[in-house]
């Protein structure tokens, strides 16, 4: 069983629950030394190393191998599951996995930061249009 730090679309409870079958405990966490950038013409982020930056996200505990296989498939070829050290609000550092954007795809990243609120607003607009 492993831990996973999520920082992008997987922060959406609906998306998370549509992929994993387990009910996992979680905590808010921060990943220091990384930045979350928008991917060109897409509505998801790429996580890259960046001195002086930090990314807020969620740490999930004890993820099953089966659910990790599903998460790997969801993330796709642009991402590599990588070990990092995240910091909890208590100040404690914990080793976990996260999905880093692979260097060969860095050309797809913008200079803009990705935000969950923008993603959720676009997702809501799409749902409203589709179901109207």
What do you see in this structure?
It is a single chain. By secondary structure, this protein is of the alpha+beta class. The chain has a single domain (2-131), classed as Gamma-glutamyl cyclotransferase-like (Hypothetical upf0131 protein ytfp), CATH 3.10.490.10. The protein contains three helices and six strands. The chain has helices spanning 13-19, 65-75, 116-131, and strands at residues 2-6, 26-39, 45-63, 79-88, 93-101, 109-113. Strands 1, 2, 3, 4, 5 and 6 form a six-stranded antiparallel β-sheet that branches. Strand 4 and strand 5 form a beta hairpin. The protein is globular, with a radius of gyration of 15 Å. The relative contact order is 0.26. Residues 123-132 have low confidence and may be disordered.
In the CATH scheme, the class would be Alpha Beta
How much strand? over 45%
Count of spatially separate domains: 1
- Overall body shape: globular
Oligomer: single chain
CATH architecture: Roll
Could you say which structural class the secondary elements and strand pairing correspond to? alpha+beta
* Percentage of residues assigned to helices: 25-40%
Give the strand tally: 6
